[in-house]
Amino acid sequence: VKMSCERWEPLYSAFLDRELPATDREALREHLTTCSACREELQFLQSLSQVLSVGRDSVEPDPGFVARFCARREEEFGSAGHRFFWRWLSVRLAPLAVAAILVAIAAVWFSESEEALTELEARELGNGFSVISEGAALQDPVLSIALEPFPGTEP
Amino acid sequence: VDSDDQLLSQFLAGDERAFETLVGRYEAPIRKLVYGLVRDWALAEDVAQDAFLRAYQKASTFRGRSSVKAWLYRIAINRARDELRQIRRKGEISLESAEIGGLERYESRTASAEALAAARELERHVAMALSEMREEYRTALMLREMEGLTYREIAELLEWPLGTVQIRVHRGRLELRSRLGQLRAPREGTKEGK
User: Fold this and answer.
1) Residues of B in Cβ contact (< 8 Å) with A94
2) Which of A67, A140, B113, B150 is the most buried (most CB within 10 A)?
3) Smallest Cα–Cα separation from B82: which of B32, B123, B38, B124?
4) What are the residue ranges in chain B where pLDDT is below 70?
5) B144 to chain A: which residues are within 8 Å by CB?
6) Tell me, what's the ipTM?
7) Distance of residue A10 Cα from the nearest chain B Cα, in angstroms
């Protein structure tokens, strides 16, 4: 069954890059035997690839690159001792900074929890369930009655 | 031979030579990748140097979510992208002059001075076209063409789905072709059975 060229067009690159599954690859190959326009299109994309990859295989490791890197490193970050100190500091300080942030978060969380508890206590007080001080009890009309001495116990 | 992770750990523990070993290990592939993006070897050297300096400076922030290689490549790609933006802003490359059919001359070049000049001209056109391309297409295309990475390797490096890589490599080629100018008559209608 012949398929339209539009069906194959999105697969051209994967075909060139050998990334197509074997079944699709064979099917596209078969299509190419009968479609000169698709063949030309693929040849064109292939030549574009060749242009893009000019110099790809000629790049050799450059022994001078590391030396130039070291020179620029010295220029930008100072002497070895200076660099070592700052790196040591950043590596050592990073966990301390994280720990400080965690402690701060925990402190805020606990303080909010305490506030929430106080609000709960206030609500419970409104319902008459809270433990209250003796002074406060004397102000409470219900408890004040209970605090009155039993008859006949007065000296 | 120490792995990249080992070298980075040694560096963070104070061994500067470990980082220099990493630089030596990746300078060629990174220069090549950057050249693919900026199309200028001298600039590629500068950008690669900058990328390694940045990695050196930020090494303590590496969390190991990707490989060291992927981390270095991403820094280099970002640095090349910044460079291309600057080039565009300065107007050192202008798309208006990218209309010459450089590919045809490239294909027929010989070793003559004239042909070499034509090849250089083509390089300039390719650089112009690349600088104007969508960033995702350019990056995917260069990782494929210059680094020779497989689609799966590109997907892992850039944390893209595999299908996205396939689409972006292809659209990158189509966009580049379009920007370089049609060198042949456009296709007409269905070509089935021709």
Assistant:
1) 60
2) B150
3) B38
4) 90-112, 116, 182-194
5) 17
6) 0.72
7) 7
